[in-house]
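Q: What would this complex look like in 3D?
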Amino acid sequence: MCAHQNTQQATDNWKEVKEFAKKALPEHIITFIEECKKEEHPESKLIKVLQLVQEHFGYLATTQMDAVAQLLQVPMAKVSGVATFYHFFRLVPRGKYLIRVCLGTACYVKGAERVVDKLKEELGIQFGETTKDGLFSLEGTRCLGCCGLAPVVEINEEIFGQVTPDKIPAILEHFSEKETEKQ
Amino acid sequence: MNKDKQNEAKMIKIKIDGKEVSVPEGTTIMEASEKIGIQIPRLCYHPDLSLQGSCRVCIVEVKGFDFYMTSCSTKVWEGMEIKTNSPEIRQARRDIVELLLDNHPQDCQTCERDGNCELQNLSYSLGVRERLFSGERKHFSEDKKSKSVVRVPEKCILCGRCVRVCAEVQGVYNLSQHGRGFYTQVMPAHASAMDESVCIQCGQCIMVCPVAAFVEQSHTERVWNALADSKKHVVIQTAPSIRAAIGEGFGMEPGTPATGKMVTATRLLGFDGIFDTNFGADLTIVEEATEFVRRMQRKERLPLLTSCSPGWINFLEKFYPEMIPYASTCRSPMSMTSVLLKTYYAEKIKKDPKDIFVVAVMPCVAKKFEADRDEHKMPDGTPYTDAVLTTRELIWMIKCYGIDLRDLPDSDFDDPLGESSGAADIFGTTGGVMEAALRMACEVLTGLPPEKMEFTDVRAVEGLRETEVVFGKYKVNVAVSNGLTNAKTILNRIIKGEKQYHIVEIMACPGGCIGGGGQPYPPKGYHFLDPELLAKRAQALYTIDSSKKVRSSNHNPSIKQIYKEFLGAPGSERAHQFLHTHYHPRLPRGIR
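A: Here is my prediction, written as structure tokens for the whole assembly.
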């Protein structure tokens, strides 16, 4: 490594840093990063890598972001800067069921705000938060493209149309029950 | 012939405010305007950093376009007609600055940068005389945890200059804009404290910031308190580069050496002993050159990396930990001097080291961190250096006391830690440590002092220098760098085995200590990283060096005396016990 080495002491922590980073990420993401590094400008794949991490974990934790920084050799500040800039990236764990209330014009006019208030009251959380049992997360969203059903609530992939505040408890119960059945 | 033609840039004719100007192709509107003497107002622009074009203050009108263009990032084209100062442009610039002010604390009177704030100056020169807007203000909390650099995000105007200096000049990339829109904040990864990030505490962000979004961790209160405490014997040491810059704080022409006046001023402030970090610098050279010659003769652990710059040491530990064994184990001149003040000097004046309060004046904010390191603490846990003042802080204290440096007579440092050679003075500029080491190494290796004391080839004014110095049968491969991006280049060459150096000097800040993060903000007419300003400060040190009788550290009589009385021989076990230290890898590991 160095020109004149004979009293080299072990001060290089790269191996440990790399092992630690590898442990934080699943196999397929590490393989993807390694593929990226074979090409020119691997740093240009940062967003793609972060998307994969979020897909796998549901959000971006600092440990995973640091792991990406080390393995992709992109400065940590840049990784967290990108992660906080884009609306798509989530920095806190997401609940099992993501409730997205459409706040597009049609839904809004049809009373989406009242639906939101009821959801917040029932779940005891605000936008961007997750219930303590880790079951539900709440988000507002732009137009979901089914204005005919306004106001619309999407829970994971499922669409609920013409939702009124009084329908909320039943909808939530439907998902809670699913969970208790599983147990 | 052909090549010459290529090099000769095409000239482009444009009109600026009705005046015809001819400039080479590729010139920006801002540069072209400067040619005819118009300095377009600017904020996020910096000549030595990449373009960002985010502040919009430098906008101008271009004929045929119904939108304003940023003059920093727009290149001229043939026939372009530019208006730099129409009433509409002046109004638009004023609006932009007013909007910045609206989201900025209205606390100029109590602000660290009052009087030398670029935003304040800009508001004045653009004619902001009232505040027409009042909207929501951002409220972010300060990060005061760091030993050196305090981050004040509430004052930040998002010009991004700190982000660029950290990434482009220092290669650290600790800062980035986080979040978006109104909530954007410049900070280290994951909003972690500066101390827990890859920050190396060099303080270049403080220097480049137009406002006070980054400031140093102040130690002035500690020093005032110590001075007021009658039980304390308060001593001060000043780094080599302070004398070259302190005058600027009092309106003296940059590059005016002010050693004697500075000593008089500190004596007036009430310090009981005024010593010179130069003494420590001489000692560092004697130890380091001894270490170097030993390694050179045994051909082991080469290259030797110098270790005086604490910003560089932080960088080494976080970015290149595998190179730690190559770094010189010598403490920095500041720490050597402090150690001797609390041991050798304490014995001499028959005082308990606990009653001695050591203040170091440094051009550096990373020294505040260094002083707090466990390696530089006495066995009972108290630090050898009790407070570190930056040049700025000392200037302020002198002013606060009601003293004008210019009016003072010269006086001398106290003995025994006040005498120094010319080699020590040049420590404060790039290549200085190298030059000083070579002066002594030559004598040790060949038995004769160098024919010429000046080794001008090692003065890396452009940031990076490599050269070969021949001492009899020894050929010494030398590399010198300042600005850590240049250090990266050298270190990568070493690691890849592309180059075999014997001795490498690395200083963290551009230009060396004269461009340190604790130096005065550039006086009027100069800008941060201004080569002219750095050259003037360096020249002050070279002038002092050449005027000295003793120019090699090993010939400093006080140094000879301290070895005889206290330390034994250079490189001896006792010398190691007092004057050497060690480093260790630290996390988070930086990306290089």
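A: To summarize the key features: Chain A has two domains: 14-85, 97-182. The helical segments of chain A are 14-24, 27-38, 46-57, 62-72, 76-85, 105-109, 112-123, 168-182.
Q: Very helpful, thank you.
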